[in-house]
Design brief:
The chain has 707 residues and is an alpha+beta fold. The chain folds into six domains: 91 residues, Helix Hairpins, CATH 1.10.287; 222 residues, 2-Layer Sandwich (D-amino Acid Aminotransferase, Chain A, domain 1), CATH 3.30.470; 87 residues, Nucleic acid-binding proteins (OB fold (Dihydrolipoamide Acetyltransferase, E2P), Beta Barrel); 71 residues, DNA polymerase, domain 1, CATH 1.10.150.20; 76 residues, 5' to 3' exonuclease, C-terminal subdomain (DNA polymerase, domain 1), CATH 1.10.150; 78 residues, Rossmann fold (3-Layer(aba) Sandwich), CATH 3.40.50. It is 39% helix and 20% strand. The strands form seven sheets. Strands 12, 13, 14, 16, 17, 19 and 20 form a seven-stranded antiparallel beta sheet that branches. A five-stranded mixed beta sheet has the order 2-11-10-3-9. Helix 2 runs antiparallel to helix 3 and helix 17 crosses helix 18. The longest helix is centred in the N-terminal third of the chain and has 29 residues. The chain is globular, with a radius of gyration of 31 Å.
């Protein structure tokens, strides 16, 4: 038999097998008693009806226990008659086994992010910009016939995780994260656990719908009470829980978190799309989606600003967090005329609320000792919720900052958290003083410095540091830093393991890490053979390290990642760097006299020379091919990366910038070439806008890297 005949016979066999399966299923369903099939259908309809009432319309006709009883009956019948199970059955909300990994989904519609406005003036400029663009888009024959004057729809900007839902013929096909706007992660199994997301629509249409997954404040507080009862660490804030839950490989974890979802955009539909944004929201409701009821239609920008002012005051009373409002041109025709810029729609903008401020009380001021011996004052606060998370401490930076604030223990202070992770004490509410507050006296000794505990002011700086640089506290911090992601990146060797190694006197310096035996590690608590083997493999992998990473890991004062790269690029080897003169060091771009003096001091110190000699016996410095930076695509460009990137870690993104001749930096200035903005950017994004620095989203950044 010829090869094509064999293929034909195989296809015929496969076809017969498929037909046989279909016939078996049909006969199986036909053999089920009619009253059972009717009961299952009624159960599905009833459960979906009450799901929609409770999770979408916030109404309740029967109690949760009664609804659970209906779900249980459906589950039992489907177990007995599995032929009756359908993809949109309410019992399908929690899948079975955990997923090994997330797959990727290419979005049917590109996912954009909105530009931000922070003031009424910026909103007035947005309105003027929209009208200018619409005016210029009019064809000559249109002029004098009509004026394109937009109205606006305003919606709450929910602080959650964006999801993209695809329905085919009315059935949920997939759910994905936003990702880079082109490709997201397949989180269908987890999104199915959210009761407010319909598994089937009220009409058999094919649509793409965008929405936001969130955890309500009340659920968040209940979850944290339960975690506290179980002795677990409480969740930081609802947004992080929602994002983390959707990205769990086990859907049962997501189901237990009791998440919610609001849908706000119908970006693709097999049926005609509504002509306005507010009609689009009504259409979503009619299809069975949960839509935030607080949206409104405004006839002009003045009404938009009034709506923003109203909700700026009222938002804390809502059972969810929102950091502003989203303003969209209402008319679809005008949206299409306006189109998009490289990163965002011209027809919409996010109008942010002011940075959240709260008051709390300073209960104490303590000190932290860093790996270079610098001591930092930290205020211990009466716990208070600010910008969605509970805060109980804030750095006071240095002695000068405490003097500037005129801060005393017992003071009532204003605390602010404007998008940044670290909260900041803005000022003291001096009117609240009772006279019992204690002025803070800067000490001259700190116990964590070891020995006599003396501290000294760093010449020319506001910082103080330990005189004794060999204290246990400093050495521990240095080891934490040495194994961290930015340095040797030893997976599994975190702070708790370092603490255990120090407690068992198994390490005292960097080189000791590479001499740990299997027997040494098996002595540690909660270390079994597999975890020991994994850690030893990670340590072995870390023996091969680049010069920049090794220099960063040594905790040389003034030498961070960028300086380490500059030094490695200039000298090429540790030996040449060790023998460099001060005059040679201070002339290097990015080094200068302060860093040069620090390097000379470190390399001439006897203990440091001994430490480095022992370490170099254990590690191999990888040779990195030097390229002519001037020929690379990002030569001469500086980048600041803020927020969370979906496709790259911060370290990987910075490495790619360096590999293309650019330079990642930590702060924004007028000289910064680009600020790359991921999800939840901090104050660096606002600073870039104030300074007029070019901003690029993740998609645009990846395109730059590709070029």
């Amino acid at each position: 038999m010829r090869i094509n005949e064999k293929i034909l016979m195989r296809h015929l066999c496969d076809s017969y097998f498929f037909v046989a399966l279909v016939l078996i299923r049909i006969f199986s369903i036909m053999s089920i008693p009619k009253e059972i099939k009717d009961r299952v259908n009624r159960l599905k309809e009833t459960i979906n009806h009450h799901r929609y009432l409770y999770h979408v319309l916030d109404r309740q006709e029967i109690g949760e226990a009664a609804l659970d009883s209906l779900k249980h009956e459906l589950f039992e019948l489907e177990q007995k008659y599995p032929e009756l199970i359908t993809p949109d059955s309410p019992s399908r909300r929690v899948a079975g086994a955990p997923l090994p990994e997330f797959k990727k989904i290419r979005h049917a519609v590109p996912q954009w992010s909105f530009n931000d406005a922070f003031s009424e003036e910026e909103m007035l400029e947005f309105d003027a910009r929209v009208k200018r663009f619409l005016s210029s888009s009019l064809k000559i024959k249109d002029k004098g016939l009509r004026i394109l004057s937009p109205t606006y729809t305003c919606e709450h900007k929910i602080d959650g995780l964006k999801i993209v839902l695809e329905y085919e013929d009315g059935l949920l096909k997939s759910a994905a994260t936003r990702g880079d706007g082109v490709v997201g992660e397949d989180v269908t199994s987890n999104v199915k656990t959210i009761e407010s997301v319909p598994l089937s629509l009220c009409e058999p249409v094919s649509v793409t719908v965008e929405g936001e997954v969130l955890m309500r404040k009340s659920i968040f507080e209940a979850q944290n009470r339960e975690r506290k009862r179980q002795g677990l660490e409480p969740f930081a804030n609802p947004r992080n829980v929602a994002a983390g839950s959707i990205r769990q490989l086990d859907p049962k974890v997501a189901a237990a978190r009791r998440l919610d979802a609001y849908c706000y955009d119908l970006s693709r539909s097999s049926a005609p799309l509504p002509e306005t944004q507010h009609a689009e929201l009504e259409r979503l409701k009619a299809l069975g989606f949960k839509v935030n009821p607080r949206f409104t239609h405004c006839k002009d920008i003045d009404e938009v600003i009034a709506y923003w002012k109203e909700w700026k005051k009222k938002m804390p009373a809502e059972d969810y967090f929102a950091d502003g409002i989203v303003v969209k041109v209402d008319e679809r025709e005008l949206q299409e005329r306006l189109g998009y810029t490289g990163k965002a729609p011209r027809w919409g903008i996010a109008f942010k609320f002011p940075a959240e401020q709260v008051t709390t009380v300073v209960e104490d001021i303590v000190f932290q000792v860093g790996r270079t011996g610098v001591v930092t004052p930290v205020a211990h606060l009466a716990p208070v919720r600010v910008a969605g998370s509970v805060v109980s401490r804030a750095t006071l930076h240095n002695e000068d900052e405490i003097k500037r604030l005129d801060l005393r223990i017992g003071d009532t202070v204003i605390l602010q958290k404007a998008g940044d992770v670290i909260p900041d004490i803005v000022s003291v509410v001096k009117e609240m003083r009772t006279g019992k507050e204690k002025p803070f006296v800067w000490p001259n000794r700190i116990a964590a410095c070891g020995g006599d505990g003396r501290i000294e002011r760093v010449p020319g700086e506001a910082a103080w540091r330990c005189v004794n640089r060999q204290s246990f506290s400093i050495q521990r911090r240095k080891l934490y830093h040495f194994v961290s992601k930015h340095c040797l990146d030893i997976d599994g060797l975190g702070p708790k393991v370092i603490d255990a190694l120090l407690e068992h006197k198994l390490v005292s310096s960097f080189s000791d890490i590479f001499t740990l035996t299997r027997g040494d590690l098996l002595e540690l608590p909660r270390f079994a053979e597999k975890s020991v083997d994994n850690l030893r493999a990670a340590i072995e992998k870390a023996r091969r390290v680049t010069l920049p990473r090794l220099l960063t890991a040594l905790s040389i004062p003034q030498v961070g990642e960028e300086t380490a790269y500059d030094l490695a690029k200039h000298f090429g080897s540790m030996e040449r760097l060790q023998n460099a003169s001060f005059e040679e060091l201070e002339k290097i771009d990015g080094v200068g006299p302060v860093v040069g003096q620090s390097l000379i001091h470190w390399f001439t110190d006897k203990d440091n020379r001994h430490l480095l000699k022992a370490l170099l016996k254990q590690v191999t410095i990888l040779k990195v091919e030097q390229k002519d930076v001037r020929e690379l695509p990002l030569a001469g460009k500086t980048f600041v990366i803020t927020g969370t990137l979906q496709t790259l870690s911060r370290e990987a993104a910075e490495a790619k910038v360096r590999g293309r001749g650019g330079k990642p930096v930590g702060s924004v200035s007028k000289k910064t070439s680009f600020v790359v903005v991921g999800e939840n950017p901090g104050s660096k994004y606002a600073q870039a806008k104030r300074l007029g620095v070019k901003v690029r989203n993740e998609k645009e950044f990846l395109e730059m890297l590709g070029k």
